[in-house]
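Example complex used in Figure S2.
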Amino acid sequence: MASFNLLLLPGDGIGPEVMTEVKKLLDWMNSTGVAKFETEADLVGGAAYDAHKVSITDQAVKMAGEADAVLFGAVGGPQWDSVPYDARPEAGLLRLRKDLEMFANLRPAICYPALASASSLKPEIVEGLDIMIVRELTGGVYFGEPKEIVTLENGEKRGVDTQVYTTHEIERIGRVAFELARKRGNKVTSSEKRNVMRSGLLWNQVITDLHKREYSDVVLEHMLADALGMQLVRWPKQFDVIVTDNLFGDMLSDVASMLTGSLGMLPSASMGIADPKTGKRKSMYEPVHGSAPDIAGKGLANPIAMMGSFAMALRYSLGLGEAADMVEKAISNVLNSGLRTKDIAAAGQNAVSTQEMGAAIIKEVQHIAG
Ligand code: NAD
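Predicted assembly (370 residues):
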């Protein structure tokens, strides 16, 4: 039986509440032999600050680097607003991303048919939507130098950011996209602004060459980023995997994620470089939402984003696609049955608690597994 080592970092606010539901699912998978999961847990964010005066310890970062996958809840909360800047809860998350060299951010936008009417678009446009945005996370205009505000001789100020990409950076994010497409709908849409940006021209050339050289079995199309923004709201189901740079990816992934309704529904993943020997990537899976201090401790949090993040870990880091299918199908079936946490309930509809939603999903996984 395959054996995996997972690090759980529940964090703050609703993080521990939604992680508890994943832990129950893991326990069930262990007991029935889906795989053998060994889990370790540690503190991150405000919880780590309270215990150690840092937002993550060196030991926890080391464990994250050694794990087959990291499951991360959420960090932050008003009680840590005045802690030193370097020890603020979010610094723990940023340190993990940096130390594990997480250069690829994966944000799926899946619209469960039962929630299609909750989208701001017409149900037929989004029902059954399943796309994946792969955003480059460590390069581009957010990090390029020079990055400054200078005062000119005439007293006017000038703000400068620099969009920079190298062949190597474009190739490695391209590889993530092509490899994902092979496990999904086998199509990649690469997006930039080659009509007005040199870096866009290079991006286009490098992705085209990489495709020809290593991934010609995958369908590749190129679309300018502004056109892609328009197509995302016009007919999003035409896409499978979209790969784009840090800036465009930031905007386009937010647009895509909101096609699907509530923040409590959205999983995500961050991937690092592949191990040269095993090909395995360091990876971290987390819900898109934060620690939701307004509902923390009340049993109101929707655990689906966290459980969906675990399903992504099963599929993309652990090679357990069938188990991932089971979890995703169970989520879909439970939503079809009409069960809702408060964030996705219709006005006046009875809502269930975090624990009740988690238990219903696990029961449905058991049912599907037979
Ligand atoms: P948030 O995502 O925590 O909450 C926004 C709104 O969505 C709130 O009304 C909340 O109740 C609701 N919500 C979020 N997740 C939900 C869920 N699973 N089920 C039901 N409702 C849910 O964003 P915020 O309020 O802007 O930030 C709160 C704290 O979280 C801040 O300290 C912020 O810095 C931090 N934060 C952390 C992360 C992270 O850990 N990755 C991401 C975003 C924000």
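The mean pLDDT is 94. Residues 14, 74-77, 90, 93, 263-264, 286, 289-295, 301-302, 305, 343 surround nicotinamide-adenine-dinucleotide (CB under 6 Å).
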